[in-house]
Amino acid sequence: MATLIDEHYLLDTDTARTLFFDYAKDMPIFDYHCHLPVQEIAEDKRFTNMTELWLSGDHYKWRALRANGITEDYITGDKSDREKFQKWAETVPYLLGNPLFQWTQLELKRYFNINEMLSGHNAETVWEKCNEIIQQPEFSARNLIKRSNVSALCTTDDPVDTLEFHRSLNEDLSFDVKVMPTFRPDMALEIGNQLFINWIEKLENVAGITISTFDDYLEALKQRIDDFHNVGCRLADLGISSQFYLETSESEIRNIFHKRFDLSKLSLEEQVKFRSFMMIFLGKEYSQHGWAMQMHIGGLRNTNTRMFHTIGANTGFDSIADFTFAEDLAKFLDVLDQSASLPKTILYCLNPRDNYMVAAMAGNFQGDVPGKIQFGSAWWFNDQLDGMIEQMKALANVGMFSKFIGMLTDSRSFLSYTRHEYFRRIMCHLIGTWVERGDYPKDFHMLGSIVQDICFNNIQNYLEIER
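^ that's the sequence the OP posted. Answer follows.
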């Protein structure tokens, strides 16, 4: 197993190896979408053991543990951290064909110089070695980011967040990695959610605006967008799990808004109309601020009701939705485009069947900015060898692969930056295959430039961030 992740892993052509080692490997990382807790970065968190650093909050690993028959007390329950690590170690050898196996090996190799396969047999040795290493200052939250060659990262933040930790990071000259918030207003659209009114109360408090009318509501959101922009935000995000476009009018939306305050029951159609109106309103605001708008489309959330009520959301019980959205997406983008208010947009689909539809849709609204409408990196369940290759092939076949803004971790773990290496190896493998087949000349000046652009330069230029 010592040679499993060797220097030529996934690089099966001479071209791929040249592109990776000479151009991709040492490029900095711009992690433009992650879920790292900004408070832990601001406070430069130190980790007590490997379970806290590596397993806590990782629903990818939790799903694998459950599939291996591990009971919940060893996953999110009250078993000790040492016992939880043991169960993960026992599970790893069974992950044949799952990217978690490669990610585990890469993380152990790159951060702890461990080259053997983790298993139940060596769990104690690995536990002791890693726990000793993470006591070193180099393994604090900030130092893990810096040693991973991260130049910038974007966290994911609710509009009701106070942004206090982002402000403190902006003022801290000792940490030169750009840490920027991302405006994630999912709840702002979900008027039918039972938590909506409670969320509005939080919005009132943080914006300093009493929300008694729909105009107040829009003004509070504008205020928060300004607040986010002032601390460096240049990206918004939105998770979409169902229909999101129906034509409506502002007067109808005002009635729907006040109907919700009266605790009247809203129809599904009214909820979709409200979502549509708010997405258009927000899209125009993003455009005015020069932001990029991310749309993560196709997650089926909280499918296991029993476990949702037991341990909550984002714990490994989400899946791939099966709704079609080509017409909704086309109409939404077109409405913004008609008013010259379409911001830079990154489209992610969770169902791989939608790859070509999304890649083709992006081409309908290009212009002004290189790669203005992006087909985003393979997301979540597609974040693996086959999924990445299929996403990149679809983009290349119907769009412009060279303007692709590349990889992101979408992770809550400070050790996940090896996923950028994983992606870069896969990208160089794919390009190497095209070149060796004769689809493109072996011009390393041009190829190397494209590779480095996808690794880092494209996203930096796309968000107009100075290095």
